Amino acid sequence: MDLLEWVQRTAAKMITRLKHLCYEERLRELRLFSLEKRRLRGDLLAAFQCLKGAYKRAGEGLFTMACRHRTRSNGFKLKEGRFRLDIRKKFFTVRVVRPWHRLPREAVTASSLAVFKVSLDGALSNLV
Fold first, then answer.
1. CA 111/CA 43 separation, integer angstroms
2. Cβ of 7: how many Cβ atoms within 10 Å?
């Protein structure tokens, strides 16, 4: 457990009416995500902005779309790179691909960042 997770756990324990609940239930009552989900949310928001052209220069060429006409999920698949080194699995472009594929079609075809955030929060709240 890293320092930020410890701080969030400690802060959640300070709320007296929730002391009897476990950490996950406290977060649910407070309508908060765990730090892991918050990191994932930030990564997916940045990926959405890169794909929609918000970062024209810096985000250009970060992701490549996979050419799949028949998909069962969202239809906007990203190509996953292959690396021999394990350290590269932690790169932003690699870290985002699998969670992106699990998003619903409404999320990835969102017209604006605000609409994407709403559907992303709904998808993340359904994750265990």
1. 18
2. 11
CA distance linking residue 44 with residue 120, whole number of Å:
8
pLDDT, tens digit, 9 for 90 and up, residues 115-124: 999 999 888 8
Joined tokens for residue 4:
């930020």
Q: In which residue ranges of the chain is pLDDT below 70?
A: 1, 54-75, 79-90, 127-128
> pTM for this one?
0.68
Neighbours of 24 (CB within 10 A): 11
List Cβ neighbours of 63 (8 Å cut-off, separation of 6 or more): 47, 50, 51, 78, 79, 93, 96
DSSP letters, 15-75, are -GGGTTS-HHHHHHHTT---HHHHHHHHHHHHHHHHHHTSSTTTTTTS--B---S--SS-S
| Separation between Cα atoms, residue 76 and residue 109, nearest integer Å | 8
- Nearest Cα to 58, choosing from 92, 87, 99? 92
